[in-house]
Design a protein that fits this description.
Helices cover about 5% and strands about 25% of the residues. With about 190 residues, it is mainly β.
């Protein structure tokens, strides 16, 4: 993981997906065999859009651009460990109530996100506001939504190896498969 330019610690690898899994076929690109989802969770660097270039099949990460203007670093006692403890996760199909088809379903899906599961991969994203700038900084094509991560709203119920609290935000991930570029962007909940 790259070093965070603000707090100086390595960024957190939050999830790591093997793209040989047929359920993730839409994410596979000629240069990617794995897809890490990452960011620094111990400072304000996560608050603004970030762009990263993946190489070596998705195992190497280079910072392209970080637009952070705030300077805030988590108190030492509340910092998430770097690296995060390794734990296995299970990729499951979304249920009907997880897929927003109307306003009522949208509210229900938001209620389940963080209490039933922490990460949405592919499918319909849950947005407070639809983002405007999804242009790849290299080829200028629109980047594809790949995932959203939120916090564990319970007390170590979904992730038992660490107190996975992010604050009131969701981290959205976008991918340009042609350029192997990932964008992270948050929205408040």
């Amino acid at each position: 993981m790259p070093l965070c330019k603000l707090c100086g610690e390595h960024m957190h690898q939050i999830f790591y997906f093997d793209l040989n899994d047929d359920r993730l076929a839409d994410l596979k690109a000629k240069e990617l065999t794995a897809l890490p989802l990452f960011s620094c969770l111990n400072c304000s660097m996560v608050w603004e859009p970030q762009y990263f270039k993946l190489s070596d099949g998705g195992k190497s990460i280079q910072i392209i651009n970080q637009e952070n203007t705030d300077i805030w670093i988590q108190d030492e006692a509340d910092k998430l460990p770097v690296p995060l403890p390794k734990t296995n996760i299970k990729l499951i199909e979304m249920k009907d109530e997880d897929i927003p088809t109307n306003e009522e379903n949208y509210d229900l899906a938001f209620d389940l996100f963080g209490s039933e599961y922490l990460c949405r991969v592919l499918g319909a994203p849950l947005y407070e506001e639809v983002p405007e700038d999804l242009e790849c900084p290299i080829c200028k094509k629109e980047m594809k939504y790949i995932a959203t991560i939120t916090q564990d709203l319970g007390e170590l119920e979904l992730i038992s190896v660490v107190d996975f609290q992010l604050g009131e935000m969701n981290i959205y991930y976008y991918l340009c498969k042609d350029c192997s570029v990932i964008k992270t962007q948050i929205q408040g909940t």
